[in-house]
Target: C-GCAxxG-C-C family protein
Amino acid sequence: MLRRIFRKFRKDEIVKIENNEVDIAALRKKAEDYYRNRDFYCSEAVLKVLKDSFGAPYGDEVIKMASGFPVGMGNGCTCGAVNGGVMAIGMFFGRDAAGGSEVKKSMELTKELQTEFTKKRKVCCCKVLTRGMELGTKEHIGHCIEITGELTEMTAKILARELGYKEK
Model:
């Protein structure tokens, strides 16, 4: 069984959307595995999985933009996984020209993501989410893996709905 799981989630394999259905659980697991295996931190893992699976028209170089967000932007502010979700929403619904009205949709969906996350976790602040945990400990890493998965799932549901896919 482990061999089968490993084959399914090799680093270079993408969780594909098939038959217009998004396997939300598989996306979550892929993001969690990226973090667990130390391939990517929270913001990077969320962005990478959603970029790849939903077919954003960008190469992996966009992951570099997410590299400053882990550990609450390095000082404990906004959760990096939240920022990864926001960046993923922006990839599909953000504007690319001055004055573009697309920003309204991006901000609306970002607000939805933030509201859903704070409904569950109460805050988006990394310092508060990890209060009492020492950075890099098993407890801290496990907690962040879970949050990375949650944000991937929440963002994937928004993207699936807005892009016209069904959830599997």
